[in-house]
Amino acid sequence: MNHFLDIHKTDAADLRAMIDQAGAMKKARLGRPRAAPDDTQPLKDRMVALIFEKPSTRTRVSFDVGVRQMGGQTMVLSGNDMQLGHGETIADTARVLSRYVDMIMIRTFDETVLTEMAEYADVPVINGLTDRTHPCQIMADVLTFEEHRGPIAGKKVVWTGDGNNVCSSFLHAAGQFGFDLTFTGPAQFDPKEEFVGFARRKGSTIVIERDPYKAVEGADLVVADTWVSMHDAQSAKERRHNLLRPYQVNAELMRHAKPDALFMHCLPAHREEEATSEVMDGPNSVVFDEAENRLHAQKAIMRWCLGV
Ligand code: CP
Ligand code: NVA
């Protein structure tokens, strides 16, 4: 069995195989009703726990539907309603859940909750977002890019705004899939050195460029995310907005990228803040393909975790 904790902790060849399998599984069920079972039922008789300590729409629904399409069953648990939220240790929770379920997906705040869960669980644990990373999202994003533009290796991705958890996983993916990434945002929100360093050690060109117009020159993909993440203090909202506003992705900024540059946003979006509706709904936007591909990418991730 394998845990899917982070993109940099997963073998690059395995990541590649997951993307390819996700694409193939997606094609195989084109046009079928959403609840129609896949031809093969690799998760038959398997029970998957989906634990949320933060809100979610995409992660929750895509994991739930994905497990069902592959023949398994799910239970969606709110961290708050569990004893976990009332003092039971993560280790004990992991040991107990391992007696009932075959796999655990958890969305949480602190990274250590995820890693401790993985340490003490006898079943695979999947990272459904932490304050630090969001690997399932970036697997879906790689799949989405390649569906539209072919291999992502060697391409230029530009991350705008806050060097947050989603940006961190993009940097991990740059290293593992062999693309380059330019970060453009205020210095206060630079991505952490450990993520930049990983990508550079793997041979990716990682650039920090304060001028968003210079940054997007030659971009194959421009990415935005919320300026205030779920783990950020709401009290910092105004300050963050003031600092990040120059990095809004709008039609004028997109005109400085390659003419066929894609636009991505993991959603949920705050329209007219980090990106305008003109871009979000424009011809180069693939934001809803990304959302759909969460389903397909995660199905491949779950199969890899269980070795089925
Ligand atoms: N992109 C993403 O993870 O969305 P949710 O917060 O709705 O799960
Ligand atoms: N950076 C965002 C992503 C949401 C899917 C957050 O952590 O809130």
**What does the overall shape look like?**
globular
Q: Low-confidence spans: pLDDT under 50, at least 5 residues?
A: none
Helix residue percentage: 40-55%
- The chain-level structural class is alpha/beta
The first-level CATH class of the largest domain is given as: Alpha Beta
Largest sheet: 5 strands, parallel
**Spatial order of the strands in the main sheet?**
7-6-5-8-9
Rg from Cα: 19 Å
The CATH superfamily of the largest domain is known as: Aspartate/ornithine carbamoyltransferase
Total discrete domains: 2
The helix/strand series, from N terminus to C terminus, equals HEHEHEHEHEHEHEHEHHEHH
What molecules are bound to this protein?
A: phosphoric acid mono(formamide)ester, norvaline
Number of strands: 9
Q: First CA to last CA: what distance?
A: 10 Å
**Content of β-strand:** 5-15%
Tally of individual helices:
12
Q: Provide the residue-averaged pLDDT.
A: 98
Give a short overview:
With 308 residues, the chain is an alpha/beta fold. It is built from twelve helices and nine strands. It has two domains: 7-133 and 293-306, Aspartate/ornithine carbamoyltransferase (Rossmann fold), CATH 3.40.50; 135-290, Rossmann fold (3-Layer(aba) Sandwich).
Written description of the protein model:
- By secondary structure, this protein is α/β, with parallel strands linked by helices.
- The protein has two domains: 7-133 and 293-306, Rossmann fold; 135-290, Rossmann fold (3-Layer(aba) Sandwich), CATH 3.40.50.
- 41% of the residues lie in helices and 13% in strands.
- It has twelve helices and nine strands.
- The protein has helices spanning 12-28, 58-69, 90-100, 111-120, 135-149, 165-177, 193-201, 212-215, 237-244, 251-254, 277-280, 287-306; strands spanning 47-52, 73-78, 103-107, 125-127, 156-160, 180-184, 206-208, 221-224, 262-265.
- The strands form two sheets. A five-stranded parallel β-sheet has the order 7-6-5-8-9. Strands 2-1-3-4 form a four-stranded parallel β-sheet, with helices on both faces.
- The longest helix has 20 residues, at 287-306.
- The model has no long low-confidence stretch (mean pLDDT 98).
